[in-house]
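hey
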């Protein structure tokens, strides 16, 4: 196959190459996996803001199967705030499983484990999803398997197409005159 000077690894003969399509599909799958957990964090942040807190930052970290939710917020009304309302919101409305919650209000950190929250607020109203990371790992594994299958399919189809399109061998043409 002849390449022109304008060809790139993602464009061959002016047509998008299979790699670009595959990369797009892979990106979409990985974004879909990450968006579910980001939606929960954004919803929790908006609930905390609706309680009157400003500058809300919410982070969910998982390390070796231990889930930590960290919330940073500011209250400008001048009253001392121990973050009790934030702990209650997390325990009652956050759909992910947490082992430890760290709340920092006006640069005053407070922490509570799952057992402490359960003792203080009772059983959770919402059943949390498992935060072990196995679900995310499974989705990433599925995405890579799908990418491998798509790559194999593209390679096989291109091979078959090239095989069919091979030009027939040229034979020397007969002379246009008769030899005496």
């Amino acid at each position: 196959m002849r390449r022109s000077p304008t060809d790139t690894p993602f464009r061959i003969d002016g047509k998008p190459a299979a790699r670009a399509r595959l990369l797009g599909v892979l990106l979409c799958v990985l974004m879909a996996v990450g968006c579910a957990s980001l939606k929960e964090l954004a919803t929790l942040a908006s609930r905390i803001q609706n309680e009157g807190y400003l500058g809300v930052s919410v982070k969910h970290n998982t390390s070796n199967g231990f889930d930590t939710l960290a919330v940073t917020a500011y209250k400008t009304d001048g009253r001392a705030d121990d973050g009790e309302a934030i702990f209650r919101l997390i325990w009652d409305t956050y759909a992910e499983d947490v082992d430890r919650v760290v709340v920092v209000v006006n640069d005053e950190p407070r922490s509570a484990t799952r057992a402490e929250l359960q003792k203080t607020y009772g059983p959770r109203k919402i059943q949390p999803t498992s935060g072990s990371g196995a679900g995310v790992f499974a989705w990433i594994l599925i995405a890579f398997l799908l990418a491998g299958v798509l790559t194999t399919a593209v390679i096989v189809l291109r091979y078959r197409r090239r095989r069919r399109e091979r030009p027939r061998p040229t034979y020397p043409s007969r002379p246009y005159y008769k030899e005496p």
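The longest strand covers residues 54-63. Residues 60 and 69 are 5 Å apart (CA to CA).
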